[in-house]
């Protein structure tokens, strides 16, 4: 294998030779591209052949796709030749670029994470992608990452091992992977955990998504798809089906929901198995935390222990209600372009039992008394009042909307009935809306608004209960959220400043948002709607010397903070 | 509870008095621009002229109100302080913000002068840390003072060990 020879070359030097990407990576990219493009080309060919057009149109797509792939392969070949990287004692350097040359050089001590990923089509060639997180952004909008796509699996393993190792001599000569021995396993996949995978709000949504896509396709074809299907299956007409559905609502609604749920369960399970198969979390001797997972795309992520500044325990509503939780890293150097990718990258565990997740989080933080087990301190009643006010306004809005919808409803029944049902038959094939409008009572909208109000107030209570903040020997803890309740334990030494914000409403109620700023994770962790004095005391206790010069003790009139004031002189 | 008796004292120094005029001018320009959009449209669009003029008046009055109230209010809130160990600022008017950053975590210190600030001889000092929470900004300082503050900050930051993360 050609890539292999290049590794051999480096072994005798102390500084590290320039190495290239694996030559096979061109073929991996070609195969990867072809897997996407060729099926599309074939599909287009078939479509052209079926549609009454000039027959020679059908000859075009496949050769065009082949030509495109060949061109891309050629460009990729050029790109490959120009990319060189090396790891010396102090720095990791990378050169790239065909027209615009780039040379990036980062000090090795800035390397915070090494991410080795191998999608299936690359794994066939024995290749992997290595992404090095640095925590330094390269100019405006640039990502703070350095990516090698692809190197051989040996090179990837070597990089992963060396880059996070402090001190001398990368590219170890002779000795074979000693790092793996002194490993402490923190967690391993328990297949039962997959039972938690469908416990997300998205499960039903995914089912609806599939259904909505089908309806959308039918609408695009001007309703022909449905006609063709119903003829082929010998189904009754749309109007008859509509009448049947409306007649059997009590039976059909639960059945439909069940079917959607089943569809969602299958999809979420498949995704979870793909992502978390072979999951293993381990800590190496030097403190580096290593995550391996993945069925089709195997992923290995190493985060330097010193850069893992905290852990976030996430409990989305549905998962929480079945007693599950998942863990994310709060670390520097894990950011990847946009927020969603960063979040995906910082996941350290699949959805698992809450108790186990709390224990695992505590182990990760190396604390004996878990910052997660005692509930954080509650926030003042005024915080609940704020949430009630919001819920009240939301309900008011819902009532207004209900009024408007009632007006529309009446119009649909009378003035617009004809037009609407004809449009509907075109788009959905089954006239449900107009039928429902006929059947449903007009006051239904206000019933819905009332229901919305109940949910809003229930949400307000839940979101108040979710608020919390706490202090532990080495960590500070903040908790918030109703839809997704997140508890974050952040190392106190990682706090690099404080931000306190107060809106006019918060000033009136004596509340404040007290946020710890940090270089890790989201960069800002907030105790929301905490009592001002309490929040300041908490912040002052977390990082004692920082805030102390700016804090004063109030004896007499405390501006605005009406409740909870000390009765002592 | 004893902890309820704690609060942050305001930072020691006010910003320059001229900042009031700077804020007033800035707010006035924004208000005029915002009111001009429906106002100019009203000249050309006949059918809904009345409504456009109404919007112009409402926007103009609101802008004028802000211009009268905001600068004084801001001047009462905006304060700053640089000690040997930390930078401490407060800013805002309706929504207020207090920021503290320790010297050891400061990455860069800059001054910036917009065209409008230059008219009033003012400068802003921007202090960046590694956090995603954004930089700390002290705006509306006298230009010479701002330079001195930056010099002092740079000196102290260099003397403080740590890699600012």
UniProtKB/TrEMBL annotation, chain A:
<feature type="transmembrane region" description="Helical">
    <location>
        <begin position="442"/>
        <end position="461"/>
    </location>
</feature>
<keyword id="KW-0472">Membrane</keyword>
<dbReference type="InterPro" id="IPR005182">
    <property type="entry name" value="YdbS-like_PH"/>
</dbReference>
<feature type="transmembrane region" description="Helical">
    <location>
        <begin position="193"/>
        <end position="221"/>
    </location>
</feature>
<feature type="transmembrane region" description="Helical">
    <location>
        <begin position="55"/>
        <end position="77"/>
    </location>
</feature>
<feature type="transmembrane region" description="Helical">
    <location>
        <begin position="241"/>
        <end position="273"/>
    </location>
</feature>
<keyword id="KW-0812">Transmembrane</keyword>
<protein>
    <submittedName>
        <fullName>PH domain-containing protein</fullName>
    </submittedName>
</protein>
<keyword id="KW-1133">Transmembrane helix</keyword>
<feature type="domain" description="YdbS-like PH">
    <location>
        <begin position="81"/>
        <end position="161"/>
    </location>
</feature>
<feature type="transmembrane region" description="Helical">
    <location>
        <begin position="26"/>
        <end position="49"/>
    </location>
</feature>
<feature type="transmembrane region" description="Helical">
    <location>
        <begin position="391"/>
        <end position="410"/>
    </location>
</feature>
<feature type="domain" description="YdbS-like PH">
    <location>
        <begin position="472"/>
        <end position="525"/>
    </location>
</feature>
<dbReference type="Pfam" id="PF03703">
    <property type="entry name" value="bPH_2"/>
</dbReference>
<dbReference type="InterPro" id="IPR014529">
    <property type="entry name" value="UCP026631"/>
</dbReference>
From TrEMBL, chain B:
<dbReference type="Pfam" id="PF03703">
    <property type="entry name" value="bPH_2"/>
</dbReference>
<feature type="transmembrane region" description="Helical">
    <location>
        <begin position="50"/>
        <end position="70"/>
    </location>
</feature>
<keyword id="KW-1133">Transmembrane helix</keyword>
<keyword id="KW-0812">Transmembrane</keyword>
<keyword id="KW-0472">Membrane</keyword>
<dbReference type="InterPro" id="IPR005182">
    <property type="entry name" value="YdbS-like_PH"/>
</dbReference>
<feature type="domain" description="YdbS-like PH">
    <location>
        <begin position="76"/>
        <end position="152"/>
    </location>
</feature>
<feature type="transmembrane region" description="Helical">
    <location>
        <begin position="20"/>
        <end position="44"/>
    </location>
</feature>
<protein>
    <submittedName>
        <fullName>PH domain-containing protein</fullName>
    </submittedName>
</protein>
